[in-house]
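Continued from yesterday's entry.
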Amino acid sequence: MIKTVLHPVSDLAKAKAVYAALLGAEPQSDSSYYVGFDIEGQHIGLVPGGGPQGMTSPVAYWHVPDIEAKLAELTAAGATVQEAAHDVGGGRLVATVTDPDGNVLGLLQDR
């Protein structure tokens, strides 16, 4: 299930204002490196400069119970690991793969 979509932004303050207006809510997470909104079970994140992963377009993150097992399943099916699973804080693991057409798919596991 997709519950998280991250958007790379060039100006965090301007993007925060636009997304707050769009979503009709203030962010729940608000820092210089990440702004996150939680709206009815959907998480929308703003990442300045595409973050360390260098995102150039929005990435949808599929929430999975076992990220390593899902990475193995996806690579066996033809996906390529772009960003290996790693902890981004609070026990949350993320990874990205690309499908055969180069589309980026995110994986997220909460421990």
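--- second protein ---
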Amino acid sequence: MGAPVLSRRARVAAGPGTRAHRRPSRRRRRDHLVGLLLVAPALVYFLVFLLYPALSALYYSFTDWNLRTDASWVGLANYADLLFDDVTYPHFWKSVRVTLQYTLLAVPLTLVTALAQALLLNTIRRGANLFRLLLFLPVVTAEAAVGAIWRWLYDPQYGLINALLGLAGIPGQNWLNTPELVIPALAFIAAWQCGISMIIYLAGLKGIPGAIREAAVIDGAGPWQRFWRVTFPMLRPTTFYLLVTGVIAALQVFGLVYVIFSGNGRSVTGGPEQSGLTYVLHLYLFAFRYDAMGAACAMSFILLVFIVIVTALQFRFVKQEAS
């Protein structure tokens, strides 16, 4: 006798082990194929331009390699030399300190500037779109143009900043050639480019119910009290998100520093006494100036591990305050 024919209710009750459930319908197979075709460009991009380079860099971080010779396996030697050999890599920890100093100064300054701009825009009724556009322009401006503009603004003889300080009776400074002023100068540029954070803060402000503000006004709270007791607490999740993403971006700062310190045909060294030698700029020099591609790959994964640790600590300790 042949196999018994199950009714539709019996096949459903039998579960996914039956042949009817194992064989998808023609329409479902077509939907799966269409879905795969739609995600194929993103999948190819991820595999070819993200996953494969990352795995290749991980392999080369365990080798002694430059762009002209074959790679030779050295194991953990690159990592050990970077972390513990100050003779072979004398500026590694210097770049770490510079990057941490920049992050600790640039991230809070950027958040404060972005929040101030968002609060100002939230009160404007006429011409708000124009002001948003003007404040967002620094984000979409090419870094080469930004570097050229700020090199002129910071110029000790002809720069606009020193000219304005002179009008106020304050002596001008040699901003990009004084080691103590390099990090504050770079952090100020980062705060000037806070357009994305400003837009996110503005969205957070728009999401605060007006009834809460009206209740605070009825209770007699002034503008300062409304900000600290109502507005800022409700922006804590937004601030936490911007803090996490801002720290990640600051730890990887490269383009602006490269443009600032490579103008006028100068060799990129990170400014006077390497005071602007950020971590990723140092990584770039290892890869393309010092012919130490293996060490550069090791530096990239050291940075990855550090970013993961810092982000995990932020989620562990800062998020509790923001929630």
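The mean pLDDT is 87. Residues 23 and 296 are 50 Å apart (CA to CA). Will compare against the first tomorrow.
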